[in-house]
Design a protein that fits this description.
Elements: H1 3-13, E1 16-17, H2 18-29, H3 38-51, E2 54-59, E3 67-72, H4 74-84, H5 96-102, H6 109-131, H7 145-176, H8 185-199
Length: 207
C-alpha cells in the first residue's frame, strides 16, 4: 500500500488539483484512513505523471495562478484495478507507545499514567471525529454500493479506536495498582518540569 494507490483511487473518482486532494480528501473524507501532507502529495503526483498513470492539464486563469488539474490515464486505471484485486500483506506495526510501555518498569506509576492519559485523550478525539463522518449505517437499504464499502471501512476504524481506548483504560487501572517505583533524579526533575508547566498560566502576546 502506498500514497500513490490512494491518489489513483481518488483521481479515478474525479479529476482534481493537488490542493483539492489535500483539502477535500486527505483533510476530510479519508483523514481517518491515510494522512498525507502537501509535500508528499505533490511528490507523488509528479512520480505518477512520470509513470504515465496520470496526466497534468494546466488551466489558464487570468485573475489568479494557473491550476494544475490531474486525471487518471487508462494505464493508471488498469494499474489501480490490478492493485485492488491482489492480497495485501499484514502491515508492519510500529507503535511508539507500546515501546514506551515495554520499558516503562523503570518509570514511576504517575509518569506512566500521565503518558497513557495523553494517548487516551488523543484516541478519544479521533473516535469522536470518526463518529461525525456522515455515512449510512450498515443495513440502511437506501445506501448505494460505494457508501456500503466506505461504511464497512469506517466501522473497522471506529471499532479499532474503541478497542484501543478500552485497552488504555485497563492499562491505566492496572498500573495505578502497581507497587510504587522509586523515581530517579532525572525522572524527578522531568516530573517537576511537567507539573510546573501544567500549573503555570500560558503566556501569550496579543496584538
Amino acid at each position: 500500500m502506498s500514497l500513490a494507490n490512494v491518489i489513483l483511487g481518488l483521481l479515478q473518482q474525479q479529476e482534481m488539483t493537488g490542493y483539492d486532494l489535500k483539502t477535500s480528501c486527505f483533510d476530510q473524507c479519508i483523514a481517518h484512513l491515510w494522512p498525507a501532507d502537501q509535500a508528499q502529495i505533490y511528490r507523488t503526483l509528479d512520480k505518477l505523471v512520470e509513470q504515465g498513470w496520470i496526466t497534468c492539464n494546466i488551466e489558464i486563469q487570468h485573475d489568479r495562478p494557473n491550476r494544475k488539474v490531474y486525471s487518471v490515464t487508462e494505464p493508471g486505471k488498469a494499474e489501480f484495478s490490478r492493485w485492488l484485486g491482489i492480497h495485501q500483506p499484514l502491515p508492519t506495526i510500529r507503535e511508539p507507545l507500546l515501546v514506551q510501555l515495554h520499558f516503562a518498569d523503570q518509570l514511576s506509576n504517575e509518569t506512566i499514567i500521565y503518558v497513557l492519559e495523553q494517548q487516551l485523550a488523543a484516541r478519544s478525539k479521533k473516535l469522536a471525529e470518526c463518529e461525525t463522518i456522515d455515512l449510512p449505517s450498515l443495513g440502511d437499504e437506501s445506501a448505494n454500493r460505494k457508501q456500503v464499502m466506505q461504511r464497512l471501512v469506517l466501522e473497522l476504524v471506529i471499532r479499532r479506536e474503541e478497542t484501543y481506548i478500552d485497552w488504555l483504560k485497563t492499562v491505566i487501572d492496572v498500573v495505578s495498582r502497581q507497587e510504587p517505583y522509586p523515581c530517579t533524579k532525572k525522572e524527578f526533575r522531568s516530573q517537576e518540569v511537567t507539573e510546573r508547566s501544567r500549573s503555570e498560566p500560558e503566556f501569550r502576546i496579543e496584538f
